[in-house]
Amino acid sequence: MKKLFAWLEKEESGQGMVEYGLIIAAIAVVAIVTLTPLGGQVAAMFTTIGASL
């Protein structure tokens, strides 16, 4: 049992995936926070373009 805990303590293979996941989550939060206030403006722009066509 001690060997198992020692191995688990040294195991780092999943570390890279966790870091990538955190980076993707941070990018998603920034995108949502940035695009939420612009949503109405983008919708109005598409409405204007659609009406022009």
User: How many beta-strand segments?
Assistant: 0
Helix/strand order, N-terminal first: HH
Low-confidence stretches: none
Mean pLDDT: 84
Please give the radius of gyration in angstroms: 23 Å
Query: What is the end-to-end distance?
Result: 71 Å
| Biggest beta sheet attributes | none
Category from helices, strands and their pairing: mainly alpha
The proportion of strand residues reads: under 5%
- Spatial shape: rod-shaped
Question: Helicity range of the residues?
Answer: over 70%
Number of DSSP helices? Answer: 2
Compact overview of the structure:
The protein is mostly helical. The protein has helices at 2-10, 15-52.
Keyword list:
53 residues, mainly alpha, 2 helices, 89% helix
How is this structure best described in words?
It is a single chain. The protein is mostly helical and 53 residues long. The chain is 89% helix and 0% strand. The protein is built from two helices and no strands. It starts with a helix and ends with a helix. The mean pLDDT is 84.
